[in-house]
Write a structure and sequence with these properties.
Length: about 575
């Protein structure tokens, strides 16, 4: 589940303090750290004599002192992201092992996902795209460090989150009926879980606000690592039920409450981190000076984009849960929403690890070169080609090794071989869309860098419409066993429309992008590598992965794929 996170700045402060607080003394002649006021000259007042003491070893001056080695914030965030994803995989594997991939798991996943959807839909988009950057600017530009303004804004946001949560929790039955077609016992179980999970709306919002306050002070580690605690709490709660076959209302209450407890811990752990950063939050009720008008207006297009995105998600969720219920009644293995979301979790890994990192690093350069179309075109072309170096072979690997990957990740507990095959089929259907999805991500972020938030919304309508139409056709035309698998393929393939339309629009502004030829080279190297992986998969996943990597790297070198060398050089430096 994704909540959009923008890292603010890249420099790490040496010491955090409250506005107006004094600074720690330094030795004479020491140069102040960036952002710190210079110390006044020492007073000329005579100092009383002191008893003689043995001479101490001379302290080296700041000029000759060996600089203390610090861990770069980007490395802290990267390691936190990797650990968070790894613990997330363990969490997902434990969930599937305990609940399986049938209708019970579908109900739990809907109840646990809806709070995140509602948060992003109703307030999360505004928080991340407009309100939080506004809050960060206030903290940096105000004479008092933005303390009063930040307190007003945080008070408004927390109050809004409380009101929103108080509205959505009693509406749990309506929310469940909106996203599913369940009835009788399955409806009752899902509604119970929704009552327990919907309070997460408040804590997701609190996590976003507190985390971005920390990011504004160059404290990136807490927000990157806090989700690990969430995963550990859920793993511990569900781990107590491994091997259990039936679940009473009391058991479901523990599972639902334990899931929400993970989000609570993830949010509240940031409070002591804020205090350590010198932030003292206090309620301020003079809201008229909170200055929300400008950021809310700026969030308009993003809110529309989020809304359109959720329309497509709502259709897929409702039809996949319906297909899961029908499959359970027909005695088919779990081919519903849980299988879809499990396959998606594996599919999105290369995008989250590589694409987001590369594009995030490129956006500042794109913004700085916004007035020079040729420079923007060069940066964007290199970015898309660099992403393709990883996503093209990754898509091939996900397609041919889907059974082995799904067995490793989800083939435990209540998940049988038929369930694993169903998830693997969906992963293989998702796989080709990885290249399109990542390329579309880079292309649409370029419009934001150019100061255009309207075009990404219009471009997003294309995959949403294609996903909705594809889901409806799959539900109408395909056999029950393949309905949700077809939806997965339609979702990944829908981003072809975004890629084509975005390139046409950018061509008018920037000129032609040279990316197609590079992707064809990558495909020429990746397809034989995928064939080698498929042939060696009989010996295990590790030999198959090694065969794919060796063949791909060899052919890419023979084809002179320059971006591969650039990417490996960048990774070595990091």
């Amino acid at each position: 589940m994704t909540v959009l996170q923008e890292a603010v700045g890249a420099r790490e402060l040496g010491h955090a303090r409250e506005p107006g607080q004094g600074v720690e003394p330094r030795s004479a002649g020491e140069h102040p750290a960036p952002g710190w006021p210079a110390l006044p000259a020492p007073s000329a007042r005579p100092v009383p004599s002191a008893p003689a003491v043995p001479p101490a070893r001379p302290v080296p001056s700041a000029r000759h002192r060996k600089p203390r080695r610090t861990v770069p914030p980007s490395l802290v965030m990267a390691v936190g992201t990797v650990v968070s994803r790894a613990s997330g995989f363990v969490r997902s594997a434990v969930l599937v092992a305990v609940l399986g991939s049938g209708v019970l798991a579908d109900g739990y996943n809907v109840a646990n996902t809806v709070p995140n959807i509602l948060f992003v839909l109703l307030i999360g988009g505004a928080l991340n795209t407009a309100l939080v950057p506004h809050l960060v600017r206030a903290a940096k530009e105000s004479a008092d460090g933005g303390a009063a303004h930040v307190n007003r804004l945080v008070t408004v946001l927390v109050a809004a989150l409380l009101v929103l949560t108080a509205v959505v929790v009693p509406a749990a039955p309506l929310v469940v009926r909106a996203y599913t077609s369940y009835g009788d016992a399955q409806l009752d179980r899902t509604v119970l879980l929704a009552y327990l999970c919907l309070p997460q709306v408040f804590f997701y919002g609190l996590f976003t606000v507190l985390g971005q306050l920390l990011n504004a002070r160059q404290r990136f580690a807490p927000m990157a690592w806090a989700p690990v605690l969430n995963n550990l709490v859920v793993i511990g709660v569900f781990g107590a039920y491994v091997g259990q076959r039936s679940f009473s209302a009391a058991d479901l209450t523990v599972l639902g409450a334990g899931t929400t407890a993970g989000v609570v811990v993830q949010s509240l752990v940031l409070l002591p981190c804020l205090r350590a950063a010198g932030v003292r939050l206090r309620p301020r009720w003079d809201w008229r000076q909170a200055g929300l008008g400008e950021p809310l207006r700026a969030a308009g297009w993003t809110l529309l984009l989020v809304l359109s995105d959720q329309v497509g998600y709502w259709v897929v969720t409702r039809l996949s849960t319906l297909a899961g219920s029908q499959a359970a009644a027909a005695g088919l293995p779990g081919v519903g929403y849980t299988a879809y979301s499990s396959a998606y979790l594996l599919w999105i890994v290369p995008h989250g690890v590589i694409t987001v990192s590369v594009v995030t690093a490129a956006v500042p350069a794109l913004s700085a070169a916004a007035d020079t179309p040729r420079a923007v075109r060069g940066i964007l072309s290199r970015t898309v080609r660099t992403i393709g170096v990883v996503t093209v072979p990754a898509a091939c690997a996900l397609a041919v090794l889907a059974p082995q990957l799904c067995a490793l990740a989800f083939g435990h507990g209540r998940t049988g071989s038929a369930d694993v095959q169903a998830i693997a089929g969906m992963l293989a259907a998702f796989a080709p869309g990885l290249v399109l999805y990542s390329a579309a991500y880079a292309l649409t972020r370029t419009f934001y860098a150019l100061g255009d938030s309207r075009t990404p919304f219009l471009l997003n309508l294309l995959p949403v419409a294609a996903t909705v139409l594809g889901a409806l056709l799959c539900h109408r035309l395909l056999p029950l066993r393949w309905v949700v698998t077809g939806m997965a393929g339609c979702y990944g393939g829908s981003f072809l429309l975004t890629c084509v339309a975005a390139q046409l629009l950018l061509r008018r502004r920037l000129g032609p992008l040279r990316v197609l030829g590079a992707h064809l080279k990558l495909l020429a190297a990746a397809l034989p590598a995928a064939a080698a992986a498929w042939w060696t998969a009989r010996y295990g996943l590790l030999p198959a992965g090694a065969a794919l990597a060796v063949v791909y790297l060899l052919l890419a070198h023979l084809l002179r794929v320059e971006e591969l060398s650039a990417l490996t050089t960048r990774l070595r430096r990091r």
